[in-house]
Structure formats: C-alpha cells, structure tokens
C-alpha cells in the first residue's frame, strides 16, 4: 500500500514569494491533515479536511495561507506571500479511523 | 500554551537496556494518547497508543503506561536496539469527534551499541 505522498520534498524561496505544497493521501482515507513543524517542536495542526470539507482551520493563518482539497482526494497548501517565519517542515497526514494518522515525509521550506 | 510536554529533549541508553521516555499533559479532556517515532527526513510513524480506560498497553518491546491522576504517560522500550534511535513524539487527543492531535516537542533517543 502506498503511503502519503508529498511534493516537493524541499523548497527554497525568497520572502514575499508564493509557494505551494501538494499532498496525496493514502487511498480511501477520507480525513486529511496539514501540519507545520518548526525546528525543535512537534507538529502543529493547520487544517483538517473531511473529504473535501475543511472542518477545522482555526489554526490556519488565513491572511497568507490557503488550502484546498478538490474532489476530496489530494490537497494543496499555499502560502502567499511567504515570510521568514514560515520556514518549517510542512507535513501532510491522512487517516481512515479515528486517531491513527499516517504521515507523509514532509516538505522542508526555507524562506530567505 | 503547550498542552503536551516532553521535558527531556534527549536520552542516551546502552543497547539492551531499558529506554524510558516521559510525557506530561495538562488538558484533562485528553483521553487517547499515542507515541510516534520519527527518523530524519521522514514523517512521524505511529508506534503505539493507549486509551484512557487502560493504564498499560504492550506491543512487543514497546509498552506505554498511563497515569491519569498525574496526567503522565511513559514509553518503555525493552531491550533497546540501535535501530530505535530516533525522535519520539508523544501526542494526545480528545475523542469529542475532533480527531485533532496535540504533539509534544519530542525526545531524541540514542541507543549506543
């Protein structure tokens, strides 16, 4: 069974530039999560989707971050414009049952 | 406000000995707890979990203990192996339907051969 796929794995951009991350969850997993992990910290939830509906986006900085999950399968997380403090690893996870989430390898973003 | 805390950023253990990783939480609504293991350049992988109705759950070399009154859980690895060297994250959720996980800051375990 293929795991959660994320791309790109690494991204370096200059501040004020836009950036987008893509995630393809495990087949059949209706719930999809985006997390941000800062250096030395644990992952923090940004947004959670149930199928194509964003059911919890309370931690998503909506002034510059946006996300979509068209057709309830893969998802895109966008930052526009990026700031220096956005440098982090962005993790996507998916789940079928409650609580057990499967994580992708993440995208390491560096904003210069 | 960190609701899940792992106060030891690192731990070194000799191969074959026991590794004990600790985790504390503050939110009394948490009733499901998980441990994730993370290797460099990979995402966290699920290791073991425990529901608040239990005080112990065992899976091979891994055992998680939960002390609800102290809001404390621990992960025991016996015997420790060099391949166990990784960062371990404690996570918690409340089963009110949110399914959201709150993670600790992680403990880096090094098992010395």
Written description of the protein model:
The complex is a heterodimer of chains A (112) and B (113). With 112 residues, chain A is mainly beta. In chain A, 0% of the residues lie in helices and 49% in strands. Chain A has no helices and 11 strands. In chain A, strands 2, 4, 5, 6, 9, 10 and 11 form a 7-stranded mixed sheet that branches. A 4-stranded antiparallel sheet of chain A has the order 1-3-8-7, with no helix packed on it. In chain A, a hairpin with a 6-residue loop joins strand 9 (88-95) and strand 10 (102-103). Chain A is globular, with a radius of gyration of 13 Å. Chain A starts with a strand and ends with a strand. The mean pLDDT of chain A is 93. With 113 residues, chain B is an all-beta fold. In chain B, the strands form 2 sheets. In chain B, strands 2, 4, 5, 9, 10 and 11 form a 6-stranded mixed sheet that branches. A 5-stranded antiparallel sheet of chain B has the order 1-3-8-7-6, with no helix packed on it. Chain B is globular, with a radius of gyration of 13 Å. The model of chain B has no long low-confidence stretch (mean pLDDT 93). At the A-B interface, strand 5, strand 9 and strand 10 of A face strand 4, strand 5 and strand 9 of B.
């Amino acid at each position: 069974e293929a795991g959660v796929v994320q791309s790109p794995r690494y991204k370096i951009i200059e501040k004020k530039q836009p950036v987008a991350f893509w995630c393809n969850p495990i087949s059949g997993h209706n719930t999809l999560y985006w997390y941000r992990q800062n250096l030395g910290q644990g992952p923090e939830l940004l947004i959670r989707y149930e199928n194509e509906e964003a059911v919890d986006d309370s931690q998503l900085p909506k002034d510059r971050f946006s996300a979509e999950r068209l057709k309830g399968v893969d998802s895109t997380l966008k930052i526009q414009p990026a700031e220096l403090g956005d440098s982090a690893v962005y993790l996507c996870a998916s789940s079928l049952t409650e609580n057990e989430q499967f994580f992708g390898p993440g995208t390491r973003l560096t904003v210069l | 406000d960190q609701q899940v805390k792992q106060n030891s950023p690192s731990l070194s253990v000799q191969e074959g000995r026991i590794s004990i990783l600790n985790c504390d939480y503050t939110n009394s609504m948490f009733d499901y707890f998980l441990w994730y293991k993370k290797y460099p350049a990979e995402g966290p992988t699920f290791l073991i979990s425990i529901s608040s109705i239990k005080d112990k759950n065992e899976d091979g070399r891994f055992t998680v203990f939960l002390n609800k009154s102290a809001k404390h859980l621990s992960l025991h690895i016996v015997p420790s192996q060099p391949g166990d060297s990784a960062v371990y994250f404690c996570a918690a959720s409340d089963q009110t339907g949110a399914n959201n996980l709150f993670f600790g800051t992680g403990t880096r375990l090094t098992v010395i051969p």
